[in-house]
Design a protein that fits this description.
- The complex is a heterodimer of chains A (153) and B (272).
- By secondary structure, chain A is of the alpha+beta class.
- Chain A is built from 5 helices and 5 strands; from the N terminus they run E-E-H-E-E-E-H-H-H-H.
- Helix content of chain B is 34%, strand content 25%.
- The chains are: A alpha+beta (153), B alpha+beta (272).
- At the A-B interface, strand 4 and helix 3 of A face strand 1, helix 2 and helix 6 of B.
Amino acid sequence: MQVEITVNGQSQGHDVEPRTLLVQYLREVVGLTGTKIGCDTSSCGACTVLVDGESVKSCTMLAAQADGSDVTTIEGLAPDDSLHPVQAAFHEHHALQCGFCTAGMVMATVSLLDEIPDPTERDVRLGLEGNLCRCTGYHNIVEAVLAAAETSR
Amino acid sequence: MIPAPFDYVRARSAEEAVAALAEHGDEAKLLAGGMSLLPLMKLRLATPAVLVDVGRVRDLSYVRDAGEHVDVGALTRHRDLETSDVLAEHCAPLRTVAGEVGDNQVRHRGTIGGSVAHGDPASDLPALLLALDAVFVVRGPGGERTVSATEFFHGFLETVLEPDELLTEIRVPKTTGGFSYQKFQRRAQDWAIVGAMAVRNGATRIALVNMGGTPLRAVAVEEALAGGASVEEAAAQAADGTEPPADINATPEYREHLARVLVRRALEVASG
């Protein structure tokens, strides 16, 4: 089937099998491998991208369901070599160790701060419950999200 | 993990969805947000030959004040429920419990109708709708029918929905009484190992999550309370008549213990 999806501002048209998952489409058809496949069971959030501005787990969505939508991946957050304020805060606060969860964690954060621009620590911890990190113990991630909220105000 | 191949049909209206179901019979499954169906398809536990995608049927996404009750379109997302002003005023429990489903990403996609039609006894919303005495509106080739929540859930992942029927609306009685949902889980985003909710809307209603093949009303507790029993005495009967499952998280005995403790806590908060 034909899908028309705008990925990081660029309109794309592709012929895909109906069973193609959005994450598979992004990684294998469009060639953007910043989005990671972690658990592949919609638990870990590593595959989080924005669809029409809202965070979703792209391993549990069909490309067909995103037909006609705007999808933003980690590659599309900031132009060229610059960093989005959330990426900068993750860098500044050392909010990652191995980095595998980071793209999903950053995308989930962008969506969270869009919905709750001035979050409490509890808002951040609850808001990122769908994203697992096995290295950091979350402390620096929470610090980074709070700092990003501060700089975005 | 990738689902087995299927044909994809996009329905633009409830009528188109019902027509597609009539054409493909029980070979077809309805796809709403996909938060329950797609994981099953990826594990190949579900292999429908045809997926009828109703995710774009926008006129089934609404929350409306309808006088005695609130009407909720079946394709309303959990996110839209947890931010609804109508629910804040007239049915706070639905707003609160929608915010307890899964995580943000799941709530951006998942719908109330999808959750109800999937009929998972571990889901949050079916049990709440049982406690609230909600009514479900169902459309099929012969027209529309309504089913009460007490009659809707039939068995594990089974409801009274026929293969050619579409759930279109949920009618939820208004409530401003006390409420509590106690959800016990190992990780914040997980399904409830056991959940208990208490709603005080005139009488006190108690519903249990993951204590059997369907969401359940704790009838013995409700009757004990109506007969003047204390919260403590009534909650001791929370597991009566249940057959909770055994799995990696809990034995049936542990679930029975959780039900008694969680019902007591829910009643204490709802009465407070």
